[in-house]
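Extended Data, panel c. Modelled sequence:
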Amino acid sequence: MGQKILKTFIVAFSFVMISLSAQAQERGTTQEAQMMAEKATAFLNENGIEKSIAAFHAPGAPWHDRDLYVFVFDKDGMTIAHGAKATLVGRNLTKMRDVDGKLFLKEIVSVADKGWVEYKWQNPISNKVEQKATYVLNTGKYVVGVGAYK
């Protein structure tokens, strides 16, 4: 009887580990978010804002990967591009608060050079509000970011 319980436990444990591994692969990492933000900033600097907006809104790689996507704001908080919610383009979001009341976009556009900003935002994959860490780069005229959900 002990062997049967042990085998059942091993099978159940293996199933849980496989499920957790698959779930982890559905999410981008903070390292991947940082790399995508750096590549998007370089693309913007090399190609200009018009070509970048079109590229960042186009579905698929390299600017959309699982729950990772690029967004761009001007220094005043106007949404220039948003890979997950194109309806936000043209809107100033500096007064937008996350579910905890944090003025996260004000913090994002205040990043002087580069850095991380944490807040809660709706995950486009799960449609749930989740903790997010966003890597932000300030180009002088624009702020480029990519965030990873935790």
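The chain has one domain: 28-149. This feature is highlighted in the accompanying rendering.
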